[in-house]
Amino acid sequence: MTNSETKATLSFSDGSPALEMPIYKGSIGPDVIDIRKLYGSTGMFTYDPGFMSTAACNSSITYIDGDKGELLYRGYPIEQLAVNGGDFLETCYLLLNGELPNADQKKEFVATVTNHTMVHEQMQFFFRGFRRDAHPMSVLVGTVGALASFYHDSLDINDPHHREVSAIRLIAKMPTLVAMAYKYSIGQPFVYPRNDLSYSANFMHMMFSTPCEPYKTNEVLVRALDRILILHADHEQNASTSTVRLAGSSGANPFACIAAGIACLWGPAHGGANEAALSMLEEIGSVDNIPEFIAQVKDKNSGVKLMGFGHRVYKNYDPRAKLMRETCYEVLQELGLQDDPLFKLAMALEKIALEDEYFVSRKLYPNVDFYSGIVQRALGIPTALFTGIFALARTVGWIAQWKEMISDPEQKIGRPRQLFVGSAKRDVPAIDKR
Ligand code: CMC
To answer: Is the CB of 362 under 6 A from ligand 1?
Structure first.
């Protein structure tokens, strides 16, 4: 962050003194105006619901240019990372450490993560407290938060070693917990992790093997899951990441902060969109019903949205969607599902929406979740678990952002203010006068 020679001046039409504010430059992307002295100097706050124009922190992890449709992890384009960047654990190393690992660093990192894949045996009892039909996201909010009660040896957020160990534990244990949530929901025994498998292959093993039958991994499907994880690993200061940072700003432990992130991700406007997009396709049912559905979407009173379309930041296209679309074709081809009716319906809907004036004029394009649901369904992952997979992928981004925040000397407890529009001060009337 460097000081710009340009300054911003805020002037008032009522003749109050103007305020000069510094402007800072990042390495790329929009400059920011430092408004920290605004309240002290003028007694006014800024008003920005939804943080449409607010940079809440400085960060060197992920950069998005929404107009260009560009997503960079530590400077590397997502297209290159997804195709030539190695597996998901390399992306994790990159997000956490700022550079891609060399062969020795990769080996050591994989060994460290795999050393932490098992969860405390007692975690099983937490699962048993849930109803079998509980939504996996509620199970994950509970069990990830509960990790704090098992790992007292890594909760000191002021100790860099503790922070590191917690980060590794979260990345290593998330697949185990997500797979346990699934196994519990279908009444099958929990499957222990296998450390001789890759991160994604091990997850599929914990999901789909049983004590009676091993799961035969298929390279195309493992690669597809790995790509889902890479594409969802981080996404700048989105709602769940901001939630993690806000929770962490009070000094809360990392397990509690990630549980808060999971809770936020669950919403259908955020990570819940992949589940909602697939449910929407199932509800539409057939290509013939698309025009009626599109008419409902355009009717503001219907409350119906085209799930998997639109994005707060990407207003031209979502670069992750392009890659996920490719993966979608690859997986369906591998499984001989090219004629899958749901996939055909999705492609027809995509075509109609991309040509429709309503969507074109609002710059609404398919986002990553429009396709990731179709891929996950083909992999055999149940719809209710889609957002859990997103949480598993995003854990590394959340924890990298949390670590960056804790080491930032400018970090303060997050405390937004408000424009108060309620009743001014008044006296409580006597009881017989109410
Ligand atoms: N279907 C129909 N209309 C839409 C949609 C949609 N999916 N998204 C936005 N619009 C309309 C909206 O009604 C508004 O129209 P108007 O200007 O006539 O009032 C206009 O487009 C602008 O919408 P907005 O709500 O101001 O846009 P936003 O930037 O605040 O919202 C969004 C972004 C992602 C919340 C929204 O597009 C949405 O709800 N999409 C569906 C859910 C979804 O797929 N979310 C996943 C995002 S990608 C995964 C992730 O990163 O979490």
So the answer is: yes
Measure the CA–CA gap between 407 and 130, rounded to whole angstroms. Answer: 37
- Closest alpha carbon to 372 in 359, 352, 391, 354: 391
Phi, psi (degrees; rounded to nearest 5) at 251: 95, 10
Ligand 1 lined by 271 (C-beta under 6 Å): yes
Q: What is the pLDDT, as a whole number, of residue 353?
A: 85
What are the phi and psi torsion angles at 254 (to 5°)? -65, -30
The per-residue pLDDT for range 257-284, each reduced to its tens digit, is: 999 999 999 998 888 888 889 999 999 9
Q: Which atom of ligand 1 is nearest to the CA of 270?
A: 52
Domains of the chain: 2-55 (2.20.28.60), 58-412 (1.10.580.10)
Q: Is 311 in the pocket of ligand 1 (CB under 6 A)?
A: yes
Phi, psi values for residue 429, rounded to 5°: -70, 155
Atom of ligand 1 nearest to the CA of 368: 48
Ligand 1 geometric centre to CA of 45 (Å): 27
Q: Is 308 in the pocket of ligand 1 (CB under 6 A)?
A: yes
Span from the CA of 423 to the centroid of ligand 1 (angstroms): 33
Predicted confidence (pLDDT) per residue in 295-342, tens digit: 999 998 999 999 999 998 898 889 999 999 999 999 999 999 988 888
Give the single-character DSSP code of 433. G
Beta strands in 76-229 (DSSP E): 76-77
